[in-house]
Specification:
Layout lengths: L7 E5 L4 H11 L5 E6 L2 H11 L5 E5 L5 H11 L7 E4 L14 H29 L2 E6 L12 H20 L5 E8 L26 H11 L6 E4 L4 H9 L1 H13 L4
The chain binds NADP nicotinamide-adenine-dinucleotide phosphate (NAP).
NADP nicotinamide-adenine-dinucleotide phosphate binds next to helix 1 and helix 4.
Length: about 260
C-alpha cells in the first residue's frame, strides 16, 4: 500500500490553478477522498464533474477568511471524515503601491492568505494531534523570502505564513503531525487575472511555471522530511544569495521589479 492510499486530503482554493492541479495529481495516487474548498460553488462543481470519475471527491463552498465559516465547515466535515492532509492553498494578491492600496485591500489579503490558513489549521489540527498523524502543507511563495515592490501586502502575508509554519514545524515535532511549506516562483494561473494586475505583469515574466510542477512538489512532500521546498528547487540558491550577499542581490531585485511601477 502506498503512503497515499486511505488518506483524505482537504485542499483550499481547489477550484483553479495550483489547487486544482494538486487535486488531480492526488486523485491519480488513489487517495481515499479529496475535499475541495473555495468560495465559488459553480467553479468547484465544474472541477468535481471532472474529478469524480477518478476519485471520491466532495466540494465545500467556504470563504476561509471568515472564522465562523471555517469552523462550520470543520464541524460538517468531521461528522464523516478525518482529514489526513490539509493543504492551505487559497490565496490572492493585489498589485499596487502601499500608497495606493487601501487599508481594506491590505486587510483582505492578510485575511485570506494568513488568517485563512490559521483558521484551517486551528480547526483541523486537534483531530490530527489526537490521531498522532497528519500533514499540513502550506502553499507560500518565493515572495515569502523577497519583498517585491508593488506587492507589499502579498509578500507580508507569505512571510507571515512562512514564519508561522516554521514555528509550528518545531512545535509539532514528535506529535506525528508534519508541516511543509511549498514556495513556488510565478505560476501560470488565474492569480494574475486580479484586475489590479491590469494584464501588465505576468506577460513580462520570462519564466512562468506550469501549476503541475507545483502539484508534483506537493505530492513528493508527503514522503519528504524537508520543511520548505522551493519550486523549482534551484531558486533555493537565490534565497541563500539574498541572505548571504544582500548588498549585491537587493539592487538586482530593485532594478528588476521597479520597471513595473507606474
Ligand atoms: N500563481 C502564482 O504565480 C503563484 C506563485 C506562488 C504562490 N502562489 C500561491 O498559490 C496559491 C494558489 O494560487 P493560484 O496561483 O492557483 O491562483 P488562482 O488560480 O487564482 O486560485 C486561487 C484559488 O483560491 C480560491 N480562493 C481565493 N480566496 C479564497 C477565500 N477567501 N476562501 C476560499 N477560497 C479562496 C479561489 O476560488 P474562489 O475565488 O472561488 O474562492 C481559487 O480556487 C495562492 O496562495 C498563491 O498565493 C501563486
Amino acid at each position: 500500500m502506498s503512503k497515499y492510499e486511505e488518506k483524505t486530503i482537504l485542499i483550499t482554493g481547489a477550484s483553479s490553478g495550483i489547487g486544482k492541479a494538486i487535486a488531480f495529481d492526488f486523485a491519480k495516487k488513489n487517495v481515499k477522498k479529496i475535499i475541495m474548498v473555495a468560495r465559488s460553488k459553480s467553479k468547484l462543481d465544474q472541477v468535481y464533474e471532472e474529478l469524480k470519475n477518478i476519485c471520491e471527491a466532495e466540494v465545500y463552498s467556504c470563504d476561509i477568511s471568515i472564522k465562523e465559516s471555517v469552523s462550520k465547515m470543520k464541524n460538517e466535515i468531521e461528522k464523516k471524515d478525518k482529514i489526513d492532509v490539509l493543504i492551505n492553498n487559497a490565496g490572492f494578491g493585489i498589485f499596487g503601491s502601499v500608497k495606493d492600496q487601501t487599508i481594506e485591500d491590505i486587510e483582505s489579503v492578510m485575511a485570506t492568505n494568513y488568517f485563512g490558513m490559521i483558521y484551517c489549521i486551528k480547526n483541523f489540527l486537534p483531530s490530527m494531534m489526537k490521531n498522532r498523524s497528519g500533514h499540513i502543507i502550506n502553499i507560500a511563495s518565493l515572495a515569502a523570502s523577497f519583498g517585491i515592490p508593488m506587492m507589499a501586502p502579498y509578500c507580508a502575508s507569505k512571510y507571515a505564513m512562512l514564519g508561522f509554519s516554521e514555528s509550528l514545524y518545531y512545535e509539532l515535532k514528535g506529535t506525528g503531525v508534519k508541516v511543509t511549506v511549498i514556495s513556488p516562483i510565478a505560476v501560470k494561473t488565474n492569480f494574475f487575472n486580479n484586475q489590479s494586475f491590469n494584464n501588465k505583469f505576468v506577460h513580462k515574466f520570462g519564466y512562468v511555471l506550469d501549476p503541475r510542477k507545483v502539484s508534483k512538489a506537493v505530492i513528493n512532500s508527503i514522503n519528504s522530511p524537508r520543511f520548505e521546498i522551493t519550486v523549482p528547487f534551484f531558486v533555493r540558491g537565490a534565497v541563500w544569495l539574498k541572505h548571504t550577499i544582500p548588498f549585491i542581490i537587493n539592487p538586482i531585485i530593485d532594478k528588476s521589479f521597479k520597471k513595473y511601477m507606474p
